[in-house]
Write a structure and sequence with these properties.
Layout (H helix, E strand, L loop, with lengths): L9 H54 L7 E3 L2 E6 L7 E2 L6 E12 L4 E13 L25 E5 L1 E9 L2 E10 L8 E9 L5
Antiparallel strand pairs: 1-2, 2-4, 3-4, 4-5, 5-6, 7-8, 8-9
């Protein structure tokens, strides 16, 4: 007499488990690859976005200032700025922009980082000399004196160079960014051009 039980044998169970594990491993490998690729895209996008924000700030500040007050150094750039948290300040009688701070962009070569430091003035002024010719509370100091604090804007930066081109200023940025799992770093070059006010 047969028992009438139906079921799977131990071998059938092992074959099914092996097939399940093989399919799971394939799906997991493709998912990991897709996530890794997406991570590389996000990493590059974030890196380029930081450089573009740095360039956009440079353009905004350069267009809002006067050529006479701009100072360019090897790894830096300083300009008087009418910007404040409340927006630009105008002198009421002549609608002339009043300088409220210096915006100092500089690169720390050893760390490969670009920084922005805002140095407020004790009172707004019409026109100001370059930063190293202006007493902003510490006496007359060289440009390098001010490159110690601020807000980090970008990292992995190999070149930060400002130069004159006609009546405009050009900011050239070059960064090399290594993505996870990538052997050689990717080099990114960006250039921003801005023209200061004429007075």
């Amino acid at each position: 007499m047969s028992s009438g039980r139906r079921g799977v044998t131990m071998i059938e169970c092992l074959v099914a488990a092996s097939l399940f594990l093989a399919v799971t491993a394939l799906v997991s490998a493709s998912f990991t690859s897709a996530v890794g690729s997406l991570s590389k895209v996000h990493s590059r996008t974030d890196y380029v976005l930081n450089l573009q924000v740095l360039g956009a700030n440079f353009v905004r500040d350069t267009q809002a200032t006067w050529m006479k007050g701009i100072e360019i150094s090897t790894d830096g750039y300083a300009c008087p700025s009418p910007q404040s948290p409340d927006g630009p300040r105008l002198e009421s009688q002549s609608a002339t922009l009043m300088v409220q701070s210096y915006h100092l962009y500089y690169r720390r070569p050893a760390q490969r980082e670009a920084w922005l430091r805002v140095i407020p003035l004790s009172s707004p002024r019409r026109l100001t000399p370059p930063l190293s010719e202006s007493d902003v509370g510490w006496g007359l100091q060289p440009f390098s004196f001010y490159t110690t604090q601020g807000k980090k804007l970008a990292s992995e930066l190999d070149l930060f160079q400002v130069r004159a081109r006609g009546n405009s200023l050009v900011l050239q940025l070059r960064g090399s960014h290594r993505h996870h799992g990538q052997v050689a770093p990717e080099t990114i070059d960006l250039e921003f051009v801005a023209s200061p006010r004429n007075s």
